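The records we work with from here on pair a chain with its fold. These numbers are not coordinates but entries in a learned vocabulary of local backbone shapes. To see the layout at work, look at the sequence and tokens printed below:
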Amino acid sequence: MGPDVIRTALCIWLVTALAGAGVVRRQAEEDLDEPPCRSYTLGGLLHLDCSNRGLKELPEGLDYNAQVLLLSNNNFWTFPTLLDNFSQVETLDLSGNYLSRPIPDYLQNWVNLNTLNLSDNLYDTWTTAGRNYAIKYLDLSKNKINVIDDRAFTSMPNLRTLDLSENRLTDLPPGVFSEAHNLDSLILSRNYFSRVPGFQSSSLRSLHMSSCQVTSIDADALLGMSSLLEIDLSMNQMEEIPDKLAGQTLQELNLSFNAINALNDLTFSSLPHLAVLDLRGNEFKDVWSTSHFASNPFLREVYVKGNRWSCEGFSVDLLLTYEFLTKDPPKIVDRESLICYSPSNVTQMSWQQAYIRTWHPTDSSTSSYTSVAVMIGIVIGVLLTSCVCRGLVAANRSDTPERSAPETTVLNLNNTTPQPRVESVILRIPLTEDLPPTYDEALLMPRLNSSFHSLPDFVDAEEEPSRNYRRSRSIGDLTESRPRLGDRRSMRRPVDIHSTSNGRIVENDESGIP
């Protein structure tokens, strides 16, 4: 690389560096010119926003009439000294700083102070100097608090909501809230409680203890909370609920996402006003009995989704509890969650379908027996029908006389003895058209069952005009009854031919004289 190229590169780098320095200088000057806090009015309240400025102290010349003071995400290690100049503040936000000292005394002069946000700081203990503050909402979440003074909140008679979530608490003193007569909601989520603390509060209505690693709760842990309406113990490690868990005013109990696997008749017997029960995501398998809720006449909502119900074995509870939870008005919020996961023959069926299909042995056995009986009846009916049909066919065959070979007599005109014989083939003598059979042909014709005397006289029927030929009549035509065309009788004389035992042939005319 030549010296000219190196010289050119150095010049370019120098120009770029100088230009960047100028930009940074101008930006710094602009930052110095911009005030660290800005004021605006929102919702009828004067806001003073000094957040995200990296401040260690409040600057001079602020509007001390601000009602909402936002000082979050700065570098305050103590409460700024200039806070003493404010008197109309209703909301003070000091979250995201490095505070660890108690509330200063001058805040007791802020009679309008409703909300104090000290979350995400460095508090590890909490105590007060014994002065009264007008604070109604105190947020101490996301600190490192592991110790709370026994009288830490006695100086806050107006306190209504206290947020102590995401700290390092393992227990609370029994009388820590005894003087907080207006405390309504206490949030203790994401701490390290192994059991539900039993403290006294005459005003607490809502207690939140989700994700606290709670493994147990004493049956009388809620007795000191005489006004408690709701408790949230979700996402803990509880495996059972103690018998006769007492809570005379408790209406909502959230035990979702624990490891509870059984209930009994005494579990909720001391919760007479229980209205909402959340047991989602537990380890229930056996279907409950309706007697478990005999002491809870106001129960109106039940959540059970996420449990793997086992519907194995005969259980009347399967149908009764299903009807108890689903009948009008339905108590179950998610009816589709009442699904059987075992055994395999009823997997993904509802409790009702599983009961009808498997847990009704009388009906199922009767149904199977009925099916077998129907099949047997069909088989027997087919066999009987076949036998009857065969019998009828056989009877018809026995009643029908068998056709024997026609017995013919051989005439011997030379006075020799005729020999009867049975012909295997019936000889049919063709008749010459319009001519009567000869004597020999007549003798060879089949014998009639009756004589010619029983046959009606006949005459040839008049032929249709379209025919120009005469049709001869057969023996079969003789049996048909036809009207006579006149009184003219046939001139043919019927003759009966009989064969005697000695071979003689006897002829009888119509008068019967041989």
About this structure: The two ends are 165 Å apart (CA to CA). Residues 406-463+490-514 form one domain. The first helix runs from residue 3 to 33.
